[in-house]
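Full entry
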Amino acid sequence: MISRIDLRGDALTEFPSGAALRALLPRADFDVAAALEKVRPICEDVHHRGDAALIDYAEKFDGVRLDQVRVPAAALTEALDGLDPAVRAALEESIRRARTVHREQRRSPHTTQVVPGGTVTEKWVPVERVGLYAPGGRSVYPSSVIMNAVPAQEAGVESMALASPPQADCGAFSGLPHPTILAACALLGIDEVYAVGGAQAVAMFAYGTETCAPANMVTGPGNIWVAAAKRYFTGRIGIDTEAGPTEIAVLADDTADPAHVASDLISQAEHDPLAAAVLVTDSVALADAVEKELAPQVAATKHVEDRIVPALSGRQSAIVLVDGLEEGLKVVDAYGAEHLEIQTGDAAAVAGRVKNAGAIFVGPWAPVSLGDYCAGSNHVLPTGGCACHSSGLSVQSFLRGIHIVDYSREALADVAHHVVTLAEAEDLPAHGAAVKARFDWKVPGQ
């Protein structure tokens, strides 16, 4: 069901660099560049036809003919009123824990006195308007509503709208986003919601339409078409990341419980047939035991043939054998997993040595599923190895740092000769002249 990659012996010695090692590791095919050409006409159609284009694409891609794209306020209230009490309690606890963590990420202005009379203050200003995207294809993710909305709210974003695909066969909520998505919005106080999915949702936020004002930033996971649309609009709007298929890597030794490891690999595989599940271990016995555990656990769950089996048997998933913990750390750092579990002896110390991961889950009692819902951490994380240079979604994602420079006459005079010297070294004499003019120095050419 899952392949093996043997990196024991001389394998890691022959491929010492990160890029060469990454090439040996499993990864899903996810060609955003190819998808970009397909989403371009969709995005430009939304630009020119606005809501009419959104309505046409809902019919084409979602099988629903909409009267309007904005969800009526009454539908949000109705969805919350009809929500299963247990689901409501779980969502409320997830929100509470996420707020607890993200509130601590707020940043305060800080002033540095560079010299007497010269200060630089950095203030943090939230993005004015954000478009949030919640997927609604194979699965419905109210948890993603929470993970996107809470950090934006804690950052102080004043205007927030959410888009999620309309559902074709959802009873009284047909033609609207899934009612659990709507209920999550109601719990979070998000009252501007649109029944729009895919690349067209990103285009709606980027360009604006008759109904929806343009946003400064778009965040939220989605399929390859959403990722491609984000790339298309990069520069016009801010984005969080081009999220690819989800992935888990587990670094484990012979102290790990194979039943736990197998269940965690399956938990990510059930997202999507392109989901990646990778075990890195120095224990052949554990590898054998995990493989033995996979078959009965897979047989006992849902989404077997359409998601889990293709994911576990695909090129993106594997058991990677290494000689020891040091080699295992080298492999997981090269892989840069979205989710990395450490199931080894002294797991906390090992986790402290990891350099590249979207989020790290320490020991047997912190599975990725906890982070997906109720750890308090954020589950919108970099994929495809992007953890080597990018972070997950946080309050910081929605803030802009602005420097305020305040110098007195004396403080400028003290450094003026350095400014003039550097301006002349760069052949930008007008830069120096702008300083000289303030002290009645002779400006060249006058």
Observations:
- The longest helix spans residues 85-103.
